[in-house]
Specification:
alpha+beta, 60s Ribosomal Protein L30, Chain: A, six-stranded mixed beta sheet, FkbO_Hyg5-like_N, RutC-like_sf, Chorismatase FkbO/Hyg5-like N-terminal domain-containing protein
């Protein structure tokens, strides 16, 4: 995903934790873990397989790794699909992926409706499905958005299986809280709004982020999350739109933001921008 104009010259996302770290591999999954957390990644070349089969294989390996390592709680997934909006196997490739992903959740007896983890799904280059994930011994709270129908309840017009994710996950530790906001776009209820208007879509996306923050703040213990304090990752479908997107975000949140802009396809062809974020409260925030 090409890096676009940013308000900072460079930004690196790195997760830090206390204690001794170890690393390993199981199937396609490579990971590093502490006593309480595990971060993993896999990359599966398509090699003639459809996206449904690929999604199922990826998540089957992930769940096998988490079971072996004793990390049953899923915090966050990052899914990157080549040619996400193209047709394949009789339906859009993202919809194919949703079938395989949910099949793996069901087979592994993981929550695939209410209580599913936060996630995103973006189009990427190359010919491999890439998945990053963060798991823990600590169970997060699933957060939904009252402005949107929960993704796992979408009607069948979006495919035979609904996407398996919650709008956000709130991890509450004794001295710190971490909020993982899923990929968020210009969707109200279950419908995309403001087609062809990237500035309006960005504003609508921010309204959805604020709604998620409001729900998370009702349950937060160490203060309140604020949009301008989040670390943001912004995906823009057309590189030339990044100036308009940046203008809206800086007008709404200010210029001193922790933000990264990337060129990527969003999971619905009519959506022009998507925002994901995370934030901290309490010790080390």
């Amino acid at each position: 995903m090409p890096l676009l104009a940013t308000s900072q010259t460079s930004l690196l996302h790195a997760w830090h934790c206390d204690g001794t770290l170890s690393e390993g591999r199981l199937g396609a999954v490579a990971y590093r873990r502490s006593e309480d957390f595990l971060f993993g990644v896999l990359s599966l070349p398509e090699a003639g397989r459809g996206m449904q089969a690929l999604g199922f294989a990826a998540y089957r390996d992930i769940f096998a790794c988490l079971e072996r390592e004793g990390m049953p709680q899923l915090l966050r997934f990052w899914n990157y699909l080549p040619r996400i909006n193209e047709a394949g196997g009789g339906m859009e490739r993202y919809r194919e992926f949703n079938v395989g992903r949910q099949d793996a959740f069901i087979e592994g007896s993981h929550p695939h409706l209410a209580g599913s983890p936060s996630a995103c799904a973006l189009g990427c280059g190359g010919d491999a499905l890439v998945v990053y994930f963060l798991a823990s011994r600590h169970a997060p709270l699933a957060i939904e958005n009252p402005r949107q129908l929960s993704a796992w309840s979408y009607p069948q017009q979006y495919g035979p299986r609904a996407p398996t994710f919650s709008r956000a996950s709130l991890l509450q530790l004794p001295t710190q809280e971490v909020l993982f906001i899923s990929g968020t776009a210009s969707i109200v209820g279950h419908e995309s709004v403001h087609p062809g208007e990237v500035a309006a879509q960005t504003q609508e996306t921010l309204r959805n982020v604020e709604a998620v923050l409001s729900e998370a703040n009702r349950r937060a213990r160490h203060g309140r999350f604020a949009a301008r304090d989040l670390t943001l990752k912004v995906f823009v479908r057309h590189a030339e739109d990044v100036v308009a997107v940046q203008r809206v975000l800086e007008a709404e949140l200010g210029k001193d933001l922790k933000i990264m802009y990337l060129r990527a396809d969003v999971c619905r062809a009519e959506l022009l921008v998507e925002i994901e974020a995370f934030g901290f409260l309490g010790a080390g925030a």
